[in-house]
Amino acid sequence: MEKKKVALIGSTSFLVSNLAPFLKSDEYLLSFFGRKPNADFPNAEFHLFDYPQAPLNFEMLLQKDIIVFASSLGVQHGQNDPADHIYDVNAFLPSKLLLYLENNNFKGGIFTFGSYAEIGKNALENTSFSEEELLNSTFPVANAYAGSKRVLSHFIHNNSFSFPYYHLILPTIYGPGENKNRLIPYLINGIKNNKEMSLTQGEQIRQYIYIEELSKLIIEIIKTLPASGIYNVFAAETLKIKEVIEKIFSRLNGNKNLIQPNTTREDVAMKSLILNASKLEKIISFKPSVLIEDSIEKYN
Fold first, then answer.
1. pLDDT-derived band of residue 125, with 50, 70 and 90 as boundaries?
2. Burial class (CB within 10 angstroms; exposed 0-12, middle 13-18, buried 19+) of 5
3. In principle, which of 94, 163, 241, 254 could form an S-S bond with 249, CB 3.0–4.6 Å?
4. Residue partners of 149: CB distance under 8 A and separation at least 6
5. How does pLDDT run across 180-235, given as a tens digit for each residue?
């Protein structure tokens, strides 16, 4: 059987680094596109893509069976990417790619990604959003990252394509290898090294899916090719940030005297970030089950 040719855009991104090992070499032929090769796949095909200096090669992508567009800017709080760069990479570039593929008789399928941050600033309590409700949200976005993802989601919603396409709206993804400044590794590192941690009151409600389970979900979609469209991704847990903090401190026997209240950062501008994933649940048999406290030991 001929191997499927898979393009992974964002060669060293958190998602690609975890998805690639699930794409077994006897079934898939991987090509990485990004700023540098993925060290875990030194013999794989690599193509430089470094916005804006080195553009993405659309013509090369036309020959692939599966494209995973996982490159993004501005996702991590505190990054200083210019807003126009964030919109270019997160919204306009994938939109242009979709148009190019449609106009050039693309025969494969493509994955793009949105974020539950597209819901926007809200003061709701435990209110979930369907795909339609997310797209119709008029709440202002909190930053350029969320705004760019909202632009991409609306573009895909307002167009149709002749090839399989899957725009997945993601909750918080976590696991080993994520940016050390994100909440879970920040807490684990602080507890293990007895370092003070600056934390907000933690009233924001978020959803969480373990990165390996997201990878398994993508693999199932690749194998089954359900109906194209925009899908909210389900999560294993819906928790307030302070509940995540409590889980990790409890599991690691952490010293809560290390916690220093952060009064300069607002964490409830987006009170509730909850996706209703019933649309996806109807077409996918896989369901996430990994809980945060069960994944802690996997962090180095």
1. confident
2. middle
3. 254
4. 90, 91, 113, 114, 115, 117, 118
5. 999 999 999 999 999 999 998 999 999 999 999 999 999 999 999 999 999 999 99
**DSSP state at residue 64:** -
Cα 185–chain centre separation: 17
Can you list the positions of beta strands (E) in 183-281?
Answer: 197-199, 205-210, 229-232, 237-240, 259-261, 274-275
- Compute the C-alpha angle 239/242/246, nearest 5°: 95
How crowded is residue 130: how many other Cβ atoms within 10 Å of its Cβ?
A: 14
Whole-angstrom Cα Rg for the chain: 19
Does domain 72-121+129-178+208-235+276-288 sit in CATH 3.40.50.720? Answer: yes
Q: Per the confidence metrics, is the pTM higher than 0.90? A: yes
Cα 232–chain centre separation:
12
Q: What share of the chain is helix, strand, coil (3-state, %, to 5)?
A: 35, 20, 40
What tokens were used for 180?
């050390």
Amino acid at residue number 130: S
CB 79 within 8 A of CB 123: no
**In the chain, what are the domain boundaries?**
72-121+129-178+208-235+276-288
Question: Within a 10 A sphere around the Cβ of 59, how many other Cβ atoms?
Answer: 8
pLDDT, tens only, 62-78:
999 999 999 999 987 66
- Segment (H or E) for 214: helix 211-224
On the question of pLDDT at 268 being above 80, the answer is no
Q: What long-range pairs does 92-96 form, CB within 8 A, spacing at least 24? A: 92/151, 93/51, 93/56, 94/69, 94/152, 95/151, 95/152, 95/155, 95/156, 96/58
